[in-house]
Design a protein that fits this description.
Elements (H helix, E strand, L loop, with lengths): L9 H6 L2 H15 L7 H22 L3 H26 L5 H13 L6 E3 L2 E3 L9 H26 L11 E4 L9 E2 L1 E2 L2 E2 L6 H11 L3 H6 L1 H5 L37 E3 L5 E3 L8 H8 L8 H13 L2 E5 L5 H13 L3 H6 L1
Antiparallel strand pairs: 1-2, 3-9, 4-9, 5-6, 7-8
Helix pairs in contact: 2-12, 3-4, 3-5, 4-5, 4-6, 5-6, 6-12
Length: 342
């Protein structure tokens, strides 16, 4: 609770330090899909110190401050938001950075802060009893729900009408190597579970290929006999990752290994390979799933990218972006869900 004549309590003022940090991690996550775990350590330490400070202030204030303004919200924050973050991470609903962010918020914002701005006190919409970190989470979920609607309107205005218009947009093939997200196309048509573009970059780096080179000679690189004898490190698929790869790409040993057979009339027909594009060999060599990618998903994605000029891609907006927006909205307005229901 804000003291008379004060802008905010000391702990609440210190909590505002989280805003520029979350601004940076949201930007970083959107641009690179990579956030260092080290960023959460100082915020966790800060949250722990402020939690103890808040508890001491509530204890010395007397009355119901210790029970209803500190203990109950703190118990809800740690006992509700922390398990939710862990559960969604465990089932794959959240990435590691998303879960860590929510864990930090549970410690850093257990109670509702108050900031006096002249005659105004924010947040404006506050539940009678609740954890501020849970309000940030529900705000983030509501913002996340609104993003597909914004995407659909954007595509509709541009005349891009398709079943996947609420989750993606068309991207020219030359931008794919620098694009994050998931391919929404297969040779059979549109899909919601196409090739992860980080996995695509891992494959191309493993072979020492560029997407342009693959498109120039798809028949050659479709043949698993063209795989390089010494593949490169695949990296983690980040756009900025540098694995020091060699640009050999892999070549066919001889004309006998050609990816197409010549018929008597001079026409050519594609040869059926046991492992087109060397997709299975790639996944076996890296001893991993490459973000859940299967050989079939990788092959389908490569077939599409080898021939299409423009492809539908889901940007897969990282959850840290809605979390950041949810934090800012919570600090200024408060609980969006409460405001919507009232």
């Amino acid at each position: 609770m804000t003291l008379a004549g004060a802008v905010a309590t000391g702990p609440d003022l210190c909590r505002l330090l989280a805003v520029p940090v979350f601004t940076w991690v949201a930007y970083r996550d959107f641009e690179t899909r990579r956030v260092s775990s080290s960023v959460w350590i100082p915020l966790s330490l800060l949250g722990t110190v402020l939690l103890v400070w808040d508890g001491w202030l509530a204890w010395t204030a007397g009355g119901t401050g210790w029970t209803y303004e500190f203990l109950v919200p703190t118990a809800l924050s740690l006992g509700l938001v922390v398990p939710i973050a862990y559960l969604f991470w465990w089932v794959g609903g959240f990435g590691g950075a998303d879960a860590k962010a929510l864990l930090v918020l549970a410690v850093l914002f257990p109670t509702f802060p108050e900031y006096a701005l002249g005659s105004w006190t924010v947040p404006l919409a506050t539940p009678p009893l609740g954890a501020f970190s849970f309000t940030i989470l529900t705000n983030a979920v509501l913002v996340g729900i609104a993003l597909p609607l914004v995407l659909a309107v954007r595509n509709a205005v541009a005349g891009r009408i398709a079943p996947v218009m609420v989750v993606g947009w068309p991207v020219f093939w030359e931008r794919i190597p620098e694009t994050h997200g998931r391919l929404l196309e297969t040779p059979a048509g549109l899909t919601r579970s196409g090739l992860d573009l980080d996995a695509l970059r891992m494959y191309l780096r493993w072979r020492g290929l560029s997407l342009a080179e693959l498109r120039e000679q798809p028949e050659q690189y479709r043949d698993p006999a063209s795989l390089p004898a010494e593949p490169n490190p695949p990296t983690d698929g980040a756009v900025t990752a540098d694995g020091g790869q060699r640009g050999d790409g892999g070549t066919l040993a001889s004309d006998d290994d050609s990816a197409a057979a010549e018929a008597e009339d001079g026409s050519t027909t594609a040869i059926e390979h046991d492992d087109p594009w060397g997709a299975e060999a790639f996944l076996d060599d890296i001893e991993g799933s490459a973000y859940g990618t299967t050989p079939e998903t990788l092959r389908d994605g490569l077939e599409v990218l080898a021939r299409e000029e423009t492809v539908w891609v889901s940007p897969g907006t990282p959850f840290l972006v809605p979390v950041f927006v949810g934090l800012v909205v919570a600090l200024g307005y408060g609980d969006l869900l409460l405001g919507t229901l009232l």
